[in-house]
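Milestone 3.1: sequence recovery, worked example.
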């Protein structure tokens, strides 16, 4: 908000300076009422800018909170993906171990089939 905030504050300061100059100069009674109105407008504008500052601070805080929440969620998703990769690696290792364990059984089964086939032919 910096650019807008600075512009508002600059406008208020310029208006306040002009109001103060008018207050210290010798003006007819009717013009003093205008200066008082300008002063009231300055004060109202200052209140609005302060509310805007406060509101903007709330928005910035909410934005930071949201950003952190998103970063936390991204971190959680990244952890899930890492965990998923670890589970997949464990599963692949388990399958490799299973296959390694099955090879001798497959060799024995193949030998048994050959023996059965040979005996059937006798």
């Amino acid at each position: 908000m910096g650019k807008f905030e600075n512009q508002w504050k600059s406008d208020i300061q310029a208006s306040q300076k002009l109001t103060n100059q008018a207050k210290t100069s010798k003006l007819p009674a009717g013009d003093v009422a205008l200066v008082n109105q300008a002063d009231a407008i300055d004060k109202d504008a200052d209140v609005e800018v302060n509310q805007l500052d406060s509101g903007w601070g709330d928005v910035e805080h909410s934005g930071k909170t949201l950003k952190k929440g998103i970063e936390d969620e991204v971190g959680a998703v990244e952890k899930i993906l890492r965990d998923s990769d670890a589970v997949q690696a464990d599963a692949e290792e388990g399958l490799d171990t299973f296959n390694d364990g099955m090879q001798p059984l497959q060799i024995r089964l193949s030998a048994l089939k050959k023996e059965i086939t040979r005996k059937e032919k006798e």
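DSSP finds two helices and no strands in the chain. The helical segments are 2-24, 29-121.
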